[in-house]
Amino acid sequence: MIQEDNEGIHYVINGEDTIIEGTNYHINLYTFENEKYQNTLKVLYGEILFNIKDSIIYPNIIVYDKPWYRDAAITSMVLKKTNNTDLIKPWVDNITDLYDRQNGGVEEADNLGELLYILSTQEERNEELITRIEEEAERIATSNPNGYYIYGKTDFGDQYLYQNLWYQLGIESVGREYHFEIGKGTVVREGNDVSIIATGIEVDAALGAAEMLAADGIKAEVVNICTIKPLDEDIIVQTAQKTGKVVTVEEHSIIGGLGSAVAEVLGEKCPTKMKRLGIMDVFGESGSAAALIHKYGLDAEGVYNSVKSFLG
Fold first, then answer.
1. What is residue 4's three-state secondary structure?
2. 10 Å Cβ neighbour count for 268?
3. pLDDT tens for residues 149-159?
4. How many CA atoms lie within 13 A of 42 on its CB side?
5. Cβ–Cβ contacts within 10 Å for residue 96, how many?
6. Which residues pair with 3 in a beta bridge?
7. Residue pair 175/122 in contact by the 8 Å Cβ criterion
8. H or E element: which one contains 9?
9. CA separation for the pair 199, 237 (Å, rounded)
10. How far is it, in rounded angstroms, from Cα 298 to Cα 122?
11. CB within 8 Å of 36: residues ≥ 6 apart
């Protein structure tokens, strides 16, 4: 019979217990004390996290020639929790690349935060590498009306919120300051008769509606809210105070989205007459994006008609 525990891998023959040569490395396996399915969890923990290479126990992430930083960072969290970070020290000490380039050779921006967290698990940290990561973050940062933050590709898409959350966790874990900013709204069209607060693709629809309203002598202010969490509450209050009327537009249910968030802010800070445009409390349907946007009144013409009706 073969079994494994904190001290290594054993084979038991006729009651005689012998540790297999080369596997007698102590690991602080989590006990899951007082947890339901304790024994099952212990086995899963060991099997998922640890492996054997050249008769030596390694964390799974470094059994492979080149680990993914994303997997390594998540695994490092567990190793840190269970006081096993010494097992990855040799690997961490020899890291020189800022990116793992495992996903089609792309330099994925989330790697920067993940690598910072990995470095944070060691008492003696590579301060030179940490500084290089900070400099790279500044290099790929973008400054635009939505804020100032690192920006790049992750899984071939634009995932800047995911990337910056990783970076914030990583940079703070190594004791340095996170100074990027996400979540600033911006006024993309000035007006004083009504505020149209939109997000995502509905910003274009709001701008189109504002152009139609201008032909009727109505000056609509259009505000782009790039993130609902964090939410730029200041710009919402400012535009509401300026126009006295607010319409929110989103390609989403009116429940639990932009409209709800804006209503909460205005209810507490600046009670204002408002209307929420989006998908009402109905089941979704299949169809082309353009056809569905038109059906639910979320194209420029639909937003125009709803704002006109709201203003009376």
1. strand
2. 10
3. 788 888 888 78
4. 17
5. 7
6. 10
7. no
8. strand 8-13
9. 16
10. 52
11. none
Model confidence pLDDT, tens digit, residues 178-220:
887 777 888 889 999 999 999 888 988 999 999 999 999 999 9
pLDDT tier at 14 (50, 70, 90 boundaries)?
confident
Tokens of 234: 């200041």
For CA atoms 247, 249, 255, 257, the dihedral sign is: negative
Asked if 296 and 253 touch (Cβ cutoff 8 Å), the reply is: no
Helices 110-120 and 69-81, packing angle to 10 deg: 30
Beta-sheet pairing, 141-144 with 56-59: unpaired
Whole-angstrom Cα Rg for the chain: 27
> Which residue, 276, 280, 186, 259, is CA-closest to 226?
186
The DSSP letter of residue 210 is H
Q: How far is residue 259's CA from residue 263's CA, in Å, rounded to a whole number?
A: 6
Output the CA–CA distances (angstroms, integers) from residue 254 to 185, 203, 235, 258, in the order listed: 19, 16, 20, 7
Residues 163 and 125: beta-carbon distance below 8 Å:
no
Question: At what angle are helices 258-269 and 233-243 packed, to 10 degrees?
Answer: 70
pTM: 0.55
Beta-carbon contacts of residue 67 (< 8 Å; ≥ 6 apart): 61, 91, 100
- Pinpoint the alpha helices (H) of the chain: 38-49, 69-81, 89-93, 110-120, 127-140, 160-173, 202-215, 233-243, 258-269, 289-295, 300-311
Please answer whether residues 26 and 38 qualify as being in contact, where contact means their C-beta atoms are separated by less than 8 angstroms.
no
What Å distances lie between residue 129 and 114, 138, 155, CA to CA?
13, 14, 24
Contact by Cβ (8 Å): 185, 230? no
Dihedral (Cα; 130, 136, 137, 142), 10-degree rounding: 170
Q: Judge whether 253 and 279 are in contact, CB under 8 Å.
A: yes
